[in-house]
Amino acid sequence: MPKLTKKPWFGPKRWGWGWRPISWQGWLVVLIYVGAVALIASDVNKLGQTKFFVAIIIISIILMVVTRLTGGKPEPESF
Predict the structure, then answer these.
(1) Where does the chain show beta strands of DSSP type E?
(2) Is 32 inside a domain boundary?
């Protein structure tokens, strides 16, 4: 998969499989994600449960795509 950035925004976690933010851009993406989840959660009564879960799934998929396109391999670092 082609990378969107020269310097990775996300790197491998120290334990387990996945990514963690390693630059300010990565932290900004995570902050935007958390803000979007909070915004959607504040309107859960208006949206209804089904639309709430669909919205959370959509923004979570967007987060995963961004981390994959701007990060390294999701493998634990070697010790």
Answers:
(1) 10-12, 19-21
(2) yes
Q: Give this prediction's pTM.
A: 0.80
pLDDT by 10-residue block (mean), the chain, 79 residues = 77 81 94 95 84 93 92 64
* Residue 78 belongs to a domain: no
Q: In the 8-state DSSP scheme, what is residue 48? A: -
Domain that holds residue 31: 21-70
Residues 6+ positions from 12 with CB-CB distance below 8 Å: 18, 19, 20, 72, 73, 74, 75, 76, 77
The count of structural domains within the chain is 1
